[in-house]
Amino acid sequence: MTITVAEGPRLLMPGMANLQPGVERYRITGGAVTAVLLGAGDRLEVIDPEGRQPVEVAAFDRGGRSDPGLLGELTHDATAGPAAGIASILAGDQPDARRVADALADKGIDLGAATAVHLFAPDSPAGQVAWLTAAADVVCVVGVPGVLGRRMAPDEQDPPTDVIAFVHRTVPPARGLEVLPTPLADQTQDIRIDAATAQAYEVKAGEFIQVIDVEGRECSDFQCFDAARLDGGVEAALDATITRSLLGASYPMPGLYAKYYSLDFQPMVEIVHDTVGRHDTFNTACNAKYYEDMGYPGHVNCSENFNRALAPYDIAPRRGWEAINFFYNTNLDDANQLYFEEPWSRPGDYVLLRALTDLVCVSSACPCDIDAANGWQPTDIHVRVYPATNTF
Ligand SMILES: [Zn+2]
User: Fold this and answer.
1) For a tag on the chain, would you pick the N or C end, based on fewer CB atoms within 10 A?
2) CA of 368 to the centre of ligand 1 (A)
3) Is residue 18 a part of any domain in this protein?
4) Do residue 199 and residue 346 come from a single domain?
C-alpha cells in the first residue's frame, strides 16, 4: 500500500491558521479609519456586515497624490468623490485620529484635496461586499464615516457600524516584513527580540512595557528585578506563587487584580492592556532538562538565554527561571493535569505592563519548536517602552 500526503497550504504565519497565507483581516470601527499598504495587484475586499454604512476608500501613490483610478475599474455601485468623510474623521481630536493624520502628513498626503471611492449607501442592505484591486503600490485609507456617540433621531437608524476588510495579497509578505501594530505613543525603547533569544532592558518606575507577539502563537517569558535592590546585591525578582496567592487567580488581568508581586510581596508590574487573556504562571521558563527529557539534549532554551542576558547585572544563573510566560497557553484539567496547547495570541497581540518601581527586565522569544507551545515554529517578539507621562 502506498500512502501519499496531499499537498496542502504551508504554515507561513503561525498565528493565522484560519486565513490562507497572504490574506489579512481588518476590522474598521464605525466612525474611524484604517490605513493599509497595498502592492500592485493586491485586492481589497470590503464587507458591510450590518448594512446602511457608506465607506470611503482613498488610494495615494508614492507622491501622495490621490486617484480613485489607482483602485482599478469601479464596479457598478461604486462612485468617486471627495474624501470628505475620511477628512472629517481625521480632523477630530481623538488621539488615534491625530496619529493617523500625522502619519499621512509625513507621507506628504493631503486629505483636504483627496478623492475617494465611495462604497455602499445609506440604504444598502446588510452583507454587501465590494472588491477593489490596486493598480500600483498605494497607501490605501479606508474610512467608515459617521459620528459615534451622536444623539440619533429614532427614525434615522444611522449610527456608524463596523466594517470588515480583507486584503488579498498577490505575494504573501516575506518573514520579518510583517506589520507591527501602531505604537501606542512615542517610544523611549524599541527592542526586537529575535526568535530563540532573550534580551535584558531597564525601565523606570511608571514607564510602560508593551510585549508584542509579532507573528502570533509565540511565547515570551518575562522576569524583572527591583533595580535599586539589585544595586545592593539583592535579587528581588517576580514570584508567581506569591502573585497567585495574593490574587486568588492563576495570573493578573487588567482591572482590580492586575499586579505581579516580588518574593517580598512588593508590587513590581501592573497589567494595563491584555489582548490575549491566556498566559502561564505555573511553569518555569523552558529549560535544558525539559528538552533533554523530551529527547533533545542541548536544545536552546529560555532559562539559559535569560542567564546570558542577565549576566551583565551579576545575576546568578539558574537552571530554570521563574517567569511570567506571556502567551503560553496552559491550564489545569479536571484530573489535575497541567496541559498546554497552541497560544491564543494572533499577530500583533500584546500585553502592556506598567513598571511600579525601577526595574531590570528580561524578555524572551521562546525557542521551543518541539511542541505546541509556539505552534512548532518559534518567531520574534517585539518590546516597546513608553514614557510614564502616558495614560493608557
Ligand atoms: Zn521558552
Assistant:
1) N
2) 6
3) no
4) yes
Q: Within a domain: residue 97?
A: yes
Angstrom distance (rounded) from CA 201 to CA 208: 13
pLDDT tens digits for range 192-233: 999 999 999 999 999 999 999 998 899 999 999 999 999 999
CATH code for the domain of 162: 2.60.120
287 Cα to the center of ligand 1, angstroms: 7
Q: If you measure from the C-alpha of residue 391 to the centroid of ligand 1, how many angstroms do you get, rounded to a whole number? A: 32
Residues lining ion ligand 1 (Cβ < 5 A) are: 286, 302, 366
Domain shared by 234 and 300, yes or no:
yes
Q: What is the ipTM of this complex?
A: 0.99
Query: Which residues are within 8 A (CB) of 65 and not within 5 positions of it... i.e. 6 or more apart?
Result: none
Domain containing residue 73:
23-168
Which among 168, 197, 228 is the end of a domain? 168
87 and 33, same domain (yes or no): yes
* Ligand 1 centroid to residue 337 C-alpha, Å: 20
**pLDDT of residue 296 exceeding 70:** yes
226 Cα: distance to centroid of ligand 1 (angstroms):
23
**378: CA distance to ligand 1 center in Å?**
9
CA of 220 relative to ligand 1 center, distance in Å: 7
Rounded to an integer, the average pLDDT of 291-318 is 97
CA 296 centroid distance within chain: 31
Residue 218 alpha carbon to ligand 1 centre in Å:
9
For ligand 1, the distance from its centroid to the CA atom of residue 325, given in whole angstroms, is 8
Tell me what the mean pLDDT of segment 297-318 comes to.
97
How many angstroms separate the CA atoms of 321 and 306, rounded? Answer: 8
Specify if 175 maps to a domain: no
How does pLDDT run across 79-104, given as a tens digit for each residue? 889 999 999 888 887 767 777 788 78
138 plus 211 within the same structural domain: no
Q: How would DSSP label each residue in 45-101?
A: EEEESSS---EEEEEE-TTS-B-GGGG-S--TT-EEEE-HHHHHHHTS--HHHHHHH
